Amino acid sequence: MRMASATANCAKIIEYVFTQGFDRVVNIQIGAKTKDPLEFKDFEDVMEAWVAQMKAIFSLLVRSVNLGRFIGHKITPRPYLSSISSRSIESGLDVCDPSISRGNAWITGFTWVENADSLAAVKKLVFDEKKYTMAQLVEALDANWEGYETMRLDFVKNAPKWGNDEIVE
């Protein structure tokens, strides 16, 4: 029996690039403490921060999944799922017990497209065209785009999109 052991909201990766890994929703440092975005000199700095955030998020998830594989079946057994698993029925063990598993742990990532679209927009509008500065972008993001509607629409409508533009694919 196979099932995802963790789910990653990958849009947090691009968010953390601009907050140095600090999550403003839960008010704690979750991602990597990367360079202040106001110090980004080129798009490579943005990508370096993005890679660091991706590694930090998936490292956290992998460690959680690994811990869960050893204790999950003890603290959160799945009797219904076990009742329809031939291995569980034959062994009498919970479906998540690692002794009967063939390595069913994996992480499901969603919202990847937001990363590609956001990175492409930053590259085009901040670094290639220099239409906005990084300071302006950070200010707009800090304000959740309130008071920056024209700029927000520029990022939404006038930047490459995954699946539609070669640069993003």
Written account of the structure:
This is Alkylsuccinate synthase. GO terms for molecular function: catalytic activity. InterPro entries: GRE, PFL_dom. It contains seven helices and four strands; from the N terminus they run E-H-E-E-H-H-H-E-H-H-H. It is mainly α. It has one domain. The strands form two sheets. A two-stranded parallel ribbon has the order 1-4. It has a two-stranded antiparallel sheet with strand order 2-3. Helix 1 crosses helix 2. The longest helix is centred in the middle third of the chain and has 33 residues. The protein is elongated.
Topology:
Elements: E1 6-9, H1 11-17, E2 22-23, E3 28-29, H2 43-75, H3 79-83, H4 86-91, E4 107-110, H5 112-128, H6 134-142, H7 149-157
Parallel strand pairs: 1-4
Antiparallel strand pairs: 2-3
Helix pairs in contact: 1-2
- Please tally the β strands and state the result: 4
Strand content: 5-15%
Give the N-terminus to C-terminus distance in angstroms. 33 Å
Strand order of the largest sheet: 1-4
Overall structural class, as computed from helix and strand content, comes to mainly alpha
- Uncertain segments are none
* Count of separate structural domains: 1
Q: Biggest β-sheet, characterized?
A: 2 strands, parallel
- The oligomeric state of the chains shown is single chain
User: Considering DSSP H and I runs of 4 or more, what fraction of the residues is helical?
Assistant: 40-55%
**Order of helix and strand elements from N to C terminus:** EHEEHHHEHHH
Estimate the mean pLDDT confidence: 90
User: Taking Cα atoms only, what radius of gyration do you get, to the nearest Å?
Assistant: 21 Å
In DSSP terms (H or I, runs of 4 or more residues), the helix count works out at 7
Q: What sort of overall outline do the alpha carbons produce when their principal axes are compared?
A: elongated
Organism: uncultured prokaryote
Domain PFL: 1-169
GO molecular function, one term: catalytic activity
Protein name: Alkylsuccinate synthase
